[in-house]
Amino acid sequence: MDWSHIHSDFKLNGKAYSSSKFIDLAHQYTQSEKENERDFGQLILDWFNESPFMTVHTSGTTGTPKPIQIEKRQMVNSAKATTGFFDLKSKDTALLCMPVKYIAGKMMLIRALVSGLELDVIEPISNPLHFTQNNYDFAAMVPLQVEKSLPELHRIKKLIIGGAKLDDTLRQKLLSLPTVCYETYGMTETITHIAAKKIEEHYFSALPHVTFSIDDRECLVINAPNVSQKLIITNDIVDLIDNNHFEWLGRIDNVINSGGVKIFPEKIENILAEKINQRFFIAGLPDKHLGQKVTLIIEGMPYSITDDYFESLHQYEKPKEIFFVDQFAETPTGKIKRKEISELVIRQEL
Q: Is the separation of the CB atoms in 34 and 124 below 8 Å?
């Protein structure tokens, strides 16, 4: 497969490029003072070199970010699956406002190159639409960017949201907008998303050429031969509807076993999101009677939490303790490091 091919309708920041001119531009970007521009230039050079592979780094949500090799052929397949699923056509406009150091940002460029999108690239800041007045057919953001961009989101027709869970408070705000918003499911190993759902839907739907099953832990197993040569075993507990649809319940490594009852922190977090404005999460901390106890950990200065915060929870879901942490540790992509923060709280209690 010829990686040097650029779709005839592709444009970057309003300008068309031949392969040679595009590589010249990449060399200019690699000399930039801005880290994301240097990364963008290197991405172009890596894409157009002779290697059939590209090295990408995982986000580091559950551990140290690690490099993995992905076939460029599989990246092209992923790009085509995305443009097909979201009905994107050549000359559609797209916005890249995520770090190109990670797979989500890289794939926005590859989709544009493969499908002839007109791509604008701007700094991956928390309120990206503040620095462009253009309208877009397609964009991808993390929830923090979505929250900060709410007054301007009407300028985007289709928006995919990934990288972290979308809380119900933000979901309700988005439902009042004309933008069609999707939550996506995927990981670096699946070359971004392999499933998506409109934010008002309960079930994720598979992208083309993807099927699902579950293992004996009730965790999702992904069969996506166009992007991975082997089955991908996840740690995500799901309710499998059929081999193309599932409802995401939570991470198996987050599940709390309290007095023999299996509790999903993510379910509790969805309910409490309407009451708590700061970042927070539910953890299972050690307890000599229950094994684990439901614990609420909130970012920021301490304040009073009254019982009415928990009136919508079952008795066994109600937090037994509440802790405040000055600042949450997070990954470079903004995901909360639950395990690291929980261990900090445990050490402080000893």
A: no
Range(s) of the domain holding residue 325: 255-349
Q: What is the spatial distance between Cα 71 and Cα 228, in angstroms, rounded to a whole number? A: 9
Region of residue 250 (left: phi > 0; alpha: psi -120 to 50; beta: else) = left
pTM of the model: 0.88
Same domain, 112 and 170: yes
Q: Would you call 166 helix, strand, or coil by DSSP?
A: coil
How far is the CA of 77 from the CAs of 72, 83, 130, 194, 340, in angstroms?
Answer: 9, 10, 33, 11, 36
Of 155, 184, 209, the residue that ends a domain is 209
CB-based contact 12:41 (threshold 8 Å): no
Q: How many CB atoms lie within 10 A of CB 14?
A: 10
What is the band of 307 on the pLDDT scale with cuts at 50, 70, 90?
very high
Same domain, 49 and 121: yes
Number of structural domains (the chain) is: 2
Q: How far apart are CA 183 and CA 105, in angstroms?
A: 16
Domain contains 228? no
Is 146 a member of any domain? yes
